[in-house]
């Protein structure tokens, strides 16, 4: 198993190298220093996962979240209800039933690490960052705790330390950015996975690999890689044998990156504020000069008291 | 309210009082301290006291023990009534200063002169208490100024709102400050700030319009979470229009209440003129409500969401649109046509309720409509919100009782 993965990593690294050299138009056209081809991803093949939840254990372990002995993760009763991520739980595995043959399908859930993250655009103190390795990371040092990132996330991932009275943080999967930043490092969940469910590599290569799998295994997968285009694309990608809405995914998420939904408004407002400022300023000048003229006339002609219908203090 | 003998009120106008009587004159309304305390034993004060005796410890509890034990907020429902009511409703209902300030300063509608100061004060307090309410909601409330000084999230609509709130509170303070300096007898400062008022209004129009619409734009980011009947690309415009409605109708509502409550301050008060101006505000409200109503249905036609109208959410939407938008629009039109001022005042109350309902629908009831886990407020959340509103009313009354808000200060030429 380990051998396979290492080979796979080597192959992706080599291919990524050629991709960078081969003058990718997307990179050369874009002046930003972000090297999209260098971004990592994980491909999750939901047809393989056996629901052992070792990834949950490894995640808790690496992120120093409260953990249980690994044996207790064999307990299947947690699958009785669909779970989501919480403050001390960065990843969960949920069980769904395949409508075709009534076998279970296990689906790992964690931050999707969007290419253009909603949480980042929502944050008014810029606490989120899309790193060049692909991880979307959070900086608790500036967070004010407004929780708009939780409202914004289309995948309902960021969680909050509600029971932390003074220094609550947003919590979510970090893509083990500390591990993947090192040469040959892979996320803790990928490392421990005893099946071939999780594939870590360069995102573009993973998309290529996923399409290959769909073509090479007719009937096994539906022809859709979840995360290739959702919300403008995500670092984590999913393959499935059944439509994604059957295994807990939102299928109403458009291809538009979520930040674009507010970009238009921000742009329009700023333009409007600059343009509208001038007529208003000149209008104010006009009003002031009118008042001044009236006051001058008033002083010159009638010393009467100013008209007023409101009460006066005796 | 506290009845104050005329003789004693005259004392407040004496110049250069020595410090002891300054406190007596300015703070105790010309009464001695025991008299003042005695005058405060009234039924409304007793109710306010009971509310605050409960609310203040709850507020302290929230700050000490965090959001978890004091709210029903969750990872799925991160926003509750502190955002939906304290901020969204609070800011919409504080649009009176924007509306009246614009009408008076920029459109030159001088007849609305005596609506300006109460409206500005209502807005200033509305914003201050909205930010105060926001403190309870923010996990790290002590970092409130971070978006101004530490880290800037330029791509965030929240960032725009934070800056606009800060600027607009300063603007409202400038607009209100002549009353404050009259109270302190600072003639030079008062003149200087009076001259700034028109500029403050100009920038206030831009700033207030920007953030009223931005509050609606906050929800643009969550198309999958807000019910399709409420979600629209036009959300910013909807919020701006309803803020104008809220501003106009709150001025009717608030002036009705203050003229009743503070009647003694208005000696040569012209009822006929006041009624005529109230109907003028009703006319504008009617126009804004009709525009909003048609725009809202244009939005539904544009996004093809008609099918949702026959679902329970659709019925709820129709109650909001027909009962609290179209009905007040017609009632305002009717009361203006037949000069029914009483009806216009009740309609203002209906329309204000409608704006409150719209904000609660957008942020709470129609938000996460398809999520399994729904939110309803914790009793502590409700207590804190009620406590904040009580404090706001008390602050308003405290200022109106002491400063020249409802009348022109006799020693100063009208600043407008």
Question: How would you sum up this structure, described in words?
Answer:
The complex is a heterodimer of chains A (314) and B (416). Chain A has 314 residues and is an alpha+beta fold. Chain A has 2 domains: 2-257, Alpha-Beta Plaits; 266-297. Chain A has helices at residues 2-21, 25-29, 54-62, 118-122, 148-152, 177-180, 188-192, 203-216, 259-301; strands at residues 40-45, 92-97, 104-109, 128-130, 136-138, 159-160, 170-171, 198-202, 236-239. A 3-stranded mixed β-sheet of chain A has the order 8-1-9. In chain A, strands 2-3 form a two-stranded antiparallel sheet. Chain A is elongated, with a radius of gyration of 28 Å. By secondary structure, chain B is mainly α. Chain B has a single domain (42-402), classed as Formate dehydrogenase/DMSO reductase fold, CATH 1.20.1630. Chain B has helices at 6-11, 19-27, 33-39, 43-65, 67-70, 81-93, 96-106, 113-137, 146-149, 157-183, 187-217, 235-261, 271-303, 312-337, 341-365, 379-402. At the A-B interface, helix 4, helix 5, strand 6 and helix 9 of A face helix 1, helix 5, helix 8, helix 10 and helix 11 of B.
Helix-strand layout with pairing:
The complex is a heterodimer of chains A (314) and B (416).
Chain A: H1 2-21, H2 25-29, E1 40-45, H3 54-62, E2 92-97, E3 104-109, H4 118-122, E4 128-130, E5 136-138, H5 148-152, E6 159-160, E7 170-171, H6 177-180, H7 188-192, E8 198-202, H8 203-216, E9 236-239, H9 259-301
Parallel strand pairs in A: 1-9
Antiparallel strand pairs in A: 1-8, 2-3, 4-5, 6-7
Chain B: H1 6-11, H2 19-27, H3 33-39, H4 43-65, H5 67-70, H6 81-93, H7 96-106, H8 113-137, H9 146-149, H10 157-183, H11 187-217, H12 235-261, H13 271-303, H14 312-337, H15 341-365, H16 379-402
